[in-house]
Amino acid sequence: MTWSGGAFGERAHCILAPNANTMTLDGTNTWVLREPGARRSVVIDPGPPDESHLAAIAERAGQVGVVLLTHHHFDHSESAKEFAERMGCGVRALDPDYRLGSEGLGDGDVVEVDGLELRIVGTPGHTADSLSFVLPAESAVLTGDTVLGRGTTVVAHPDGQLGAYLDSLDRLHALAEAREIATIWPGHGPVIEEALGALDFYIAHRAERLGQVEAAVAELRDQPHPEGIATDELPRRVVEMVYADVDPVLWGAAELSVRAQLAHLADRD
User: Where do you find CATH 3.60.15.10 in the chain?
Assistant: First the structure.
């Protein structure tokens, strides 16, 4: 599936950053939102400090009221302060280290710029500071890396916490069930037109993976091993079993997810 961004609804335009790789898929999605006929825009996740990308954002956005960050990972946040200074606005984020100006951003906040309204939903798990933004006028939610347009996201231990991530998926699922959101505008990959189906899949996938990890741990502990399995060796051994059908290039990321799953299982016991 080829993804290159574009216009969505009456208020959104996605500009794809030129930073495609195995972790970012086609690249980072920078979202420019503006109420029809309004003077100022909202820019979400300006992405990497690539001059051609920042110029494309500026051209599309015109005057910018605020830059918002879904989370701190550099493929979303690295250019945020530079871009905001260029456009004469602030950066709002949950993590104070990534803000420009005095205004923070957190669960329950409402951001309003020239008639455009975004409702902030705390969705920690992928990172501790992950946020999602509901755009009621489009029945859409911008999820950053909490839900991707293709594949599934990494819950990277120790900043990523599986328990929090499962709670965040449940929270988004409840919004979809209540028909407050219908589509997902992710931080990577294509737009998802059926939010409820995607969230059903994400929740089922996480439950399946957790069961596979639990079974792998039990099997490894039953295998003869002269010196036992070292604590730090266990995650990689689980990856080799559970993610055997995944490209080994991605095993490093898979190991971070496994560590998060092992921590979650330990907390649950």
Answer: 6-195
- Alpha-carbon distance values, 190 to 4, 35, 58 (Å): 8, 22, 22
The Cβ of residue 157 has, within 10 Å, a number of other Cβ atoms equal to: 19
What is the SS3 assignment for 156? coil
Tell me what percent of the residues of the chain surpass a pLDDT of 90.
83
Selecting among 75, 109, 145, 159, the annotated active-site residue is: 75
> Is 183:140 a contact under the CB 8 Å cutoff?
yes
User: What are the pLDDT digits (tens) for 139-165?
Assistant: 999 999 999 999 999 998 899 999 999
**Of 68, 67, 129, nearest in space to 95 by CA:** 129
- Residue 222 annotated as catalytic: no
Q: Is 98 exposed, middle or buried (0-12, 13-18, 19+ CB in 10 A)?
A: buried
Burial 212-224 (b: 16+ CB within 10 A, else e): bbbebbeebeeee
d(CA 93, CA 220): 42
Indicate if the alpha-carbon torsion angle 249, 253, 257, 260 is positive or negative.
positive
3-state secondary structure of 12: strand
Q: Which CATH superfamily is domain 6-195 in?
A: Ribonuclease Z/Hydroxyacylglutathione hydrolase-like (3.60.15.10)
Whether the full predicted model's pTM is greater than 0.85, yes or no, is yes
